[in-house]
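pasting for ref
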Amino acid sequence: MESKESPLRERADRILDAAEELLLRHGYRKVTVEDIATRAEVGKGTVYLHWRTKMELFEALLLRESIEVVEEFAEMLRQDPAQVQPHRFARASFLTTSRRPLLRAMFTTDLDLLDKLARHPPMRSHDLLAAERFFRVAEKYALLRTDVPNLRYTMQAVQGGFYIFDGTETTEAELDEEARADALAFAVRELFEPAQAPPPEVLAAAATEYISIFTELVPPYKKWIYD
């Protein structure tokens, strides 16, 4: 028997699909809730039954994308625990973002939206808690150096730069995504990791904890989107 909530969830996904399509086509500032409702073939009031504001709607859209990403990361670590090494994980994260149009757009053309979402209380609290746990796991298993000043800030600043700066203003030929991902991995490896990589059993233990964090993120994300 079909769940009573199923039609509501299907409608929510249809609205989010419309929002994603319009965001990619026009950018956040030019898209209205009325535009989204029209594209999803629902009334404007129906959109507000799911999310109270335009910002909440786009937060739900990003969270839905995030669910797919964290599930992909968890599976990656199950298949290859060595991917938990910061430089390898940074490379995989960069490529995943680059190959997802919604995430790529937010990091390149809709930075204002990304900033607003990052500061929005529900998303900020989830992400800050997850980030704190990831760093604690990395420190617990000695995946990171201990002599880098302001390590967390420095890592985030370095990695963030690779997402925002595409290299087209350098004297070198434009780099493709793989080359940029390799450059990011090199930077993270040289700047933030110890000279000797941890043994396989340590990487496996760290990967298990990362998988647990990813798995725990999904239920609250789904609750925020659909409840």
